[in-house]
Amino acid sequence: MQGKKLFLDKEVTRFRLSERVPRHNLYRRLAELVDWSFLYDETQALYSRTGQPSLDPVVFFKLVLVGRLENLVSDRRLVEHCALRLDILYFLGYEVDEELPWHSTVSRTRQLFPASVFERLFDHVFAQCVAAGLVTGHTQAVDSAFVKANASLEGLCEKLPAEASSPTLHVAGEPMPDVAATQPAAIISSPAHQLQRVATTHARYLRKDSGPLGRSRPQARLLSNKTHYSPADPEARISVKPGKARALNYLCSMAVDEGTGVISHIQADFADQRDSVLLESIVEPLHQRLLTHDLPVQEVVADTNYSNGINYALLEGRGITPWIPVFGKYKPEIAGFTYDVEADCFTCLAGKALSFKVFDKSQDGGLSKIYRAASRDCRLCPHKPTCAPRVKKRQLIRTAYAAHYRRALSRQQSRQGQHMRRLRQRTIEPVFGSLLQHYGLRRVNTRGRGSAHKTMLLTAIAFNLKKLLKHQPQRQASLAMAQSKPPVQQQILLFWRKRRRR
């Protein structure tokens, strides 16, 4: 007989939410796993003693964590989604007939709380991962990835020269002009010499207007962080990856423990910064966080973007072995010159010494050592027309961290170095893929680097909580006592007894 279900939409008089959420549910287990009460003490100083009650801070953090776990970027969609899920309502502590907070309340509360509260929650969850045995602390993999900002390239504005953006002088005795009515809300300027250099480069590009097959090139729009900025999010930076279009992004820098893939550190940086400059800002808080749990960092694994003599010296000075490949432009030897480590000098083909003279510091902070030969040695040298044709004496410029580069190159070419390269790939790259595709980090729905840092912290907290929920402590295996083997004579005797029984 065919069945037909009739829906009456009747009012249920007896309903308990806890009975509708099973014990194995993710959010029910998550509510019992973490002690959220410490958040009241962390946020107490941010509220006034009078006025209307605000959104519960515990409810706020649970709500935004649900957005990360459900891969929802929009606050409006997050509230609509939570209203349809019984398990999420139970996790938030809301009844079925209670109204959830408005999406604008969630946004304002996110702006109210400083980043230190989010970091405190991250440390709290990380401590639980350490207590569960998910963190070893021995080897840390470091990498970075671009995260799309909440701004568009279509709304970019040109920067003004620094001289043109100077404030207007006010004459005493006259009324103060309305600055807000006569000028934009914020004027971001750039040094005039940088703008002139970029304009000259762009004009040189446009002069070569003959493209392939004789067709003229279209007039390209020059987009650079030196010439343009986003008025919607001035801290977002224009960046590009190979094979992808330019976009306004933030840089997500992260460290992952090699034990089980738990995120040990995460931060938001400007997208136009080089990775090699940011390593110190990653290692310092990471080292302090692990030392609080008596887990000192012993090895750091990163890709070639972090290759820098300063980084090698920084890690080795802390007793950490840097497994960072040397970039391709580094040459351990100079053709025609031999280096003496003890004397710290080079010897040319003519047998003359180029001794160390002075240190030189570049604009980007790099430290170099300058070696020069004596003028009399080069003046009478038969190799001068080919060795130093336009100068009086030959000069060599080498990095001051040459010894650190040689050790890094030796580690890179070893068998252990190849193993550490594969270890980095299988440790941190899958974590970045999960955060971008399944935890809502493909785009930041806030504006400003501070807000982007909060979003990345929430994403890392949600990822670590998932790791903690999936962890099952290993049961102790039962011990079995192995009996010793009987001697050969006893084996023969047992054999004949069995034969007789047959």
From TrEMBL:
* Domain Transposase DDE, first and last residues per copy: 347-469
| Superkingdom | Bacteria
Query: Taking every annotated instance into account, which residue ranges of this chain make up the domain Transposase InsH N-terminal?
Result: 16-111
Q: Which InterPro entries match?
A: IS1182_transpos, Tnp_DDE_dom, Transposase_InsH_N
| Short name of any one Pfam family annotated for the protein | DDE_Tnp_1_6
Name of protein: IS1182 family transposase
Starting at the broadest rank, the lineage of the source organism is: Bacteria, Pseudomonadati, Bacteroidota, Cytophagia, Cytophagales
